[in-house]
Amino acid sequence: MSATARPPARTGIFRRKPVDQITEDDHSGLERSIGLWRLTAIGVGGIIGAGVFSLAGAVASADGDGVGPAVVISFLIAGIASAAAAFSYAEFAGMIPKAGSAYTYGYAVLGEVVGWCIGWDLLLEYIAIVAVVAIGISGYFGFLLDQVGLDLPHWMLGAPGTGDGHRIDLFAMVLCLLVAWLLSLGMRNAARVETFVVGIKVALVLLVVVVGFFHIKTDNLSPFAPAGFSGAMSGAAVVFFAVFGYDAMSTAAEESKDAQRHMPKAILYSLGISMVLYVLACLTLTGIQDYRDIDPESGFSSAFASIGLDGFGTVIAVGAIVGILTVMFTFMLGVTRVWFSMSRDGLLPAWFAKTHPTRHVPTRVTWIAGVLSALIAGLMPIAEAAEPTNIGILLAFVVVCVAVIVLRYKRPDLPRTFRLPGMPVVPIVGVAFSLWLITFLAPATWLRFAVWFVIGLAVYAAYGYRHSVLNRQFD
Question: Rg of the chain's alpha carbons, rounded to an integer?
Fold first, then answer.
């Protein structure tokens, strides 16, 4: 610790590692190799996924009783709410250019046990998201195989109970392991591939928008909000889960060339680019087909089929596969960096924090996360795998928004390369919207969360508290 760094704050479960000490410690083994636009690409890759091709149609249609063209408003409301949290993440990213994101921010401001709870929950959430996304890609892959008339054995096409003869979703498992392999190659190479694939995805979304633009009928946009503003708000609760991803991207702060300047920009740029694409796609969808006729399961495919462009559904399926693949990359990156940070802080065994000597990435946790997500993707139906994927991220948003308020007033002297506007109103909006969305979660989600939470507290009590780096500093 340098002479200017403050000693760890407090003792016990709420001890905190001072922000200035966190920023000074830079012996992680990770390599700073990512520039602004590759960071932004990782963020866009995490935000724009299957949602642009599936959620828009599902919310607009809902079997003829949906929000109609006002799905655009739903996405804008969700985007504004997400931006409230994004501004909070951006301020922290400019102050604490370290891996771990919400875990690190919560640990530094609200105490070790708060950081532990968020980190522990994100481990499960991010792995589950990777698995769910892999299952989603597998479904689109099956659609493409049908298009070319190729039949594969039923045993390898889905988890048990998802179809006749299904035993394992082999393609989803392979995808999880493929992403783990890509991340294990090193961040510089992995980010290059991610940037290239994100470029393809954005180009495909724009192609859908451009082709659809020439077939928009203004009559289809009326009535604009058949379910009223309340319907648009309910739709926002559904599509909100398509407008985050920057939280996982921010875990790569320690691998950014100039994280304090680039990370806040990348967070805001990625959300802004994604929102523009979502709005354009929604206007295109509801403009080329009456919302009452949109297929909620394949909105864009049915919309283009209605104007005689049936073959465009294949393009959309390819775009969905590419789009979802980048989501897998971003969230597997997130779980490995949170796991790495918790292990480096002593809350989990230091063995997990070991980085590759030449690739400078935590290959051990990368492959463990890859195998765990592959097992979930291969053996669990998508509905069961998806249950734990929301509550932890919403709670992380709450923690980050609260922490940025606390730190702004307790440590106004800290250098900030980005200061969120509208303090404290903006982060309070982020807290309120996240808590409101939590009320929509099913009882089964709460039960699984409670079980995982209790297990986490037991692990912290048995291992993390005693082996914490801060505990050794106090000794």
Answer: 22
**Rounded mean pLDDT, 72-97:** 90
User: Residue 464: is its pLDDT beyond 50?
Assistant: yes
Q: What is the pTM of this model?
A: 0.87
Tell me, what DSSP letter sits at residue 329?
H
Percentages helix, strand, coil for the chain (3-state, rounded to 5) are 70, 0, 25
Spell out the residues 6+ positions from residue 126 whose beta carbon is closer than 8 angstroms to its own: 248, 331, 332, 334, 335, 338, 369
Q: What's the CA gap between 323 and 325, in Å, rounded?
A: 5
pLDDT band, residue 174 (cuts 50/70/90): very high
**Encoded tokens for 202:** 């954005």
Indicate the SS3 state at residue 444: helix
Return d(Cα 475, Cα 464) in angstroms, integer.
15
Number of H helices, E strands in the chain: 20, 0
As a whole number, mean pLDDT of residues 403-418 equals 91
Whether 405 shows a pLDDT value over 50: the answer reads: yes
CB 329 within 8 A of CB 218: no
Mean pLDDT of the chain: 86
Distances (CA, A) of 34 to 189, 248, 274, 354: 10, 15, 20, 20
